[in-house]
Specification:
Length: about 200
Amino acid sequence: MIQMSKLESILAFNEAFVANKEYERFKADKFPQKKIVILTCMDTRLVELLHNAMNLKNGDAKIIRNAGAVISHPFGSIMRSILVAIYELGAEEVFVIGHYGCGMTGLSANSVLQKAEERGIDMDEINALQYAGVDVNKFLTGFENVTESVNHSVDMVINHPLLPKDVRVHGLVIDPETGKLDLLQRDLQKGANAKEPQDA
C-alpha cells in the first residue's frame, strides 16, 4: 500500500475542509480586533496554547513567529512586520513573548553546521561566506537566557526610530506546559501623546 505524502494528505483534507465550509467559523478581517501585534516563538506547543492563554480568537491579533521570538536586526523582516501591523493594520500595542524551554536556548552554531554537513551541505561554500562579511556563527547561535533575549527584543522595538511614541510595548515569557504568562516589562514607550485606556 502506497502511503500518501504529507503534502497529499494536507491537500486531501483541505479539499474536504473547503467543501464542508468549515472555514466559516474562522471568518475575520485583516485588521486585528484587539489592536495588538504579537512576536512569539514558532514552537509547536504555542500554536493553540498562546491564543487560549491570552483569550484570543481568530482575527484578534497579528501574530509573528520565528525561532525564539528574536529580533536580530532593527531593519529586518520581523521589525518590518511589526511596523506594518502598527501603521497599516491599526495595532496599538506590541507584545514580545518568549517561552521557557525554548530550543534557541544554548543553541550552538557548531551543532547546526555539523548537522548541515551531514545532510550534504558543502562547508567550503559556508566558510567562503565569512569572506563576504557574513557571520554564519552569529547567524546560527541562539541565546543563553530567554528573559534576557525577550528584554533585548523589547529594547529593539522601543528604540526603533520608526516606532510611534504612543505605542505600548510589553515583554513576557510563557510557560509552554501551563500557559502561565510572566510579565517582564510593561507599558513601555508611553510618550506624552500616549492614549490612555477609555472607560467602558
